[in-house]
Amino acid sequence: MKFFRNPPAAPSEPKVQERISRRSSAMAEISRLLKTEDPLCVLDIGATSASNIRFFTERGHRIYSQDLLEASTDPALVISNEQGLPTLDSKKFLEDNLAYPSTHFDLVFCWNLADYLDESLVKPVIGRLWSEMKPGGMLLAFFHTREAGPDAPYYRYHITGTDMLEVHTLNARGSGRKERARNFTLQRVFNNRHIENLFRDFASIKFFLSRDNIREVLVVR
């Protein structure tokens, strides 16, 4: 696993918040699940997207939306580990942010959360999601390839069609508190073996390669 410990130097000028359309092979498979007439229970734990909420509610599904990456910046989560080094309290984080019933969700969107989330939270979050997903439920996650650098963009993902997404760059540096909280940098790059280990408790895993240094991963509970 490749780690990026030092964030890149801040640019002198704010970045333009780009919007890019990309095709998603994993979303094409998920769209088959969405054709059901039974209402689904969906969890989106990436940067909040009003269009995603509208996409699912208009189709009769129930969606829960939580920005877990922004929630992880809460100063109250910082504790010291056994070596006296600062880390995040994963137990408190899960109590505050993923307090849902067991086997509740049919579909979970992690987007690129694992690449940017603090190391102390990644495995606990995936473990909690496994317990809160229904057997046979699907989870979508994106992972950067080794070609990505520490300045890889952090995106908000908007579902715009059965196999299309619009990605909105959130790395822009602004002067407000909320904008600074979104200025996340890539923490690590997982290889395929690390990804398989991360989802080892799930029933199946499928990889999709794309041309933008992203691996789409679709796992089934």
Walk me through the structure.
By secondary structure, the chain is of the alpha/beta class. The protein has a single domain (2-220), classed as Vaccinia Virus protein VP39 (Rossmann fold), CATH 3.40.50. The protein contains 8 helices and 13 strands. The protein has helices at 25-34, 50-57, 68-71, 90-97, 113-116, 119-132, 177-181, 192-198; strands spanning 2-3, 19-23, 41-44, 62-65, 78-80, 86-88, 105-111, 133-144, 155-159, 164-169, 188-189, 204-209, 214-220. The strands form 4 sheets. It has a 6-stranded mixed beta sheet. A 3-stranded antiparallel beta sheet has the order 2-10-9. Strand 9 and strand 10 form a beta hairpin. Helix 4 crosses helix 6. The longest helix is centred in the middle third of the chain and has 14 residues, at 119-132. It is globular, with a radius of gyration of 17 Å. Residues 7-16 and 172-181 have low confidence and may be disordered.
